[in-house]
Every structure is written in C-alpha cells, then in structure tokens.
Amino acid sequence: MSEQEPEPVTQPVPATKSDLPSGNGRSSTPAGTPAPGTTAGDDSGRHVHRFWSARRAPATAVAMLAAAGTGLFLYDLAAVRAGQSAMRWRHRLADELATRPLDDPWLIAGAALIMAIGLWLMILALTPGLRGLLPMRPPAGSADMHAGLDRSAAALALRDRAMEVEGVQSARIDVGRRKIRARARSHFRELDEVRADLQAALEDGVRQLGLARPPALSTVDVRRPKKG
Question: Which of 189, 217, 213, 186 minimizes the C-alpha distance to 202?
C-alpha cells in the first residue's frame, strides 16, 4: 500500500504596501490636515514617545572636566594636610574672590558663562534629541516594538511618489517634524491639475509611511520650469 500524499494547505497572503493603490487620483482632503485614517498614536491608543539621544559627547566632556577638577582639588587638599603649602592658583583664586566686588565685569562674565553652561546641560537633559528620526506607529499586537524613520528617508520616499504623478518633471520634498513642504516643476498639463494630483499622492504616501504623528502637508507648490 502506497502512502497517501498530504493535501496542500493554502493560506491567505497579507497585502503588502506594493499591493495598495498608488493614490494618484484626486482627494478632497485639504492641505495642512492629516490624511484620513491616521492618528496621533498607534492602534491601541498608546502614546508613542520620541527617541532619546544618548548625548555621549556632552556627557563625556562634563564627566572629564568634573573628574579633572575634583582630582586637582583633592590633590591640593591632600598636600595641605600633609604639611605642604597650597598651590599658587588656589591662593590667587581665594584672594580674587575675597577682594573683587560683585559688580566686577570678570565676575559677571564668569557667572554668565557658568549659567549658560548649566542651562545648556538642562536643555540636553530634558529634551529627547534625535530630531531627524520620526517615531512610527507599532503594528497591532506589538506594543513593545519601537521603530523610527529617518526624515531624509521619508523625504526620498515621498519624492518617488511625487515623480509618479503625470506631468511632474522634478520635485523637492522637505520633511520636518510637524510640516511637509513640496515643490515641483511641471512641463505639461495644467498646474492646478498637477497640484491636485500631487497633493493626493503625497497625502497617500504620508499615510503609508506609518508614522505615529505624521507631519501635515502644509505647502504644495507647482511651477513651470525656467526657460533657457
């Protein structure tokens, strides 16, 4: 008796981004508003946070300066405890701080410099950084996934979508954290028609990027190429 061959099992294949419509048709969504179907967070309603920069260079510089200053003071104090005289710079610093008035220009400049450095460090500690990385909306059931898209990559993808519009000869897309500006050159077709198709294509392209907080399409400028 021959073995019975197993029956093939077929499963539905999920649609990919290439299977979605290109979106070159007209759309009634005005510029400056998010495309329909997009939300400020993911599908589960969880707020998607921005990526935080490691700030390695400022942290390393502050740590090295603090370590050097602390080591120098400890060495001087240990030398005084051992019966040696304090360093000349510490004597001079103590005399200058004791004799100079509070309205001295050097004291004001030093205080302003220290305050500026402290303010800069506070800004670095309280802001996420990585402004060029846009957080993406995690897929359903993947709450722990945190993905991001570089703004230059998003601009390149939107530029490719813009070049698919009939009549567009060249395009430049500037993607910011909150706004997207598009400038294109059209060598044929009416400018209003090209602008409407370009706006619809870009809105659909922004929607397919899967960003958690998609920037608004604020400017769509279409002009004729310069003659000569």
Answer: 217
Q: pLDDT (tens digit, 9 = 90+) per residue, 119-150?
A: 988 888 788 777 788 888 877 766 667 778 88
CA distance 7 to 9: 6
Residue with tokens 């209003």: 192
Closest CA to 34 of 209, 208, 207, 220: 207
Render pLDDT for 12-57 as a digit per residue (tens, 0 to 9): 434 333 343 344 433 333 444 444 334 444 444 456 777 777 777 8
State the sign of the Cα–Cα–Cα–Cα dihedral 187, 193, 195, 198. negative
Token pair recorded at residue 204: 């659909």
Q: Which DSSP helix (H) or strand (E) runs through 183?
A: strand 179-186
Residues 32 and 101: beta-carbon distance below 8 Å: no
For CA atoms 191, 194, 200, 203, the dihedral sign is: negative
Phi-psi region of 37 (alpha: psi -120 to 50; beta: other; left: phi over 0): left
**What is the structure's pLDDT at 42?**
41
pTM of the model: 0.56
Helix axes of 56-81 and 105-126: crossing angle, nearest 10 degrees = 130
> In the numeric block, which tokens belong to residue 134?
């846009």
Structure tokens at 187: 């060598």
Q: Percentage of the chain with pLDDT > 70?
A: 77
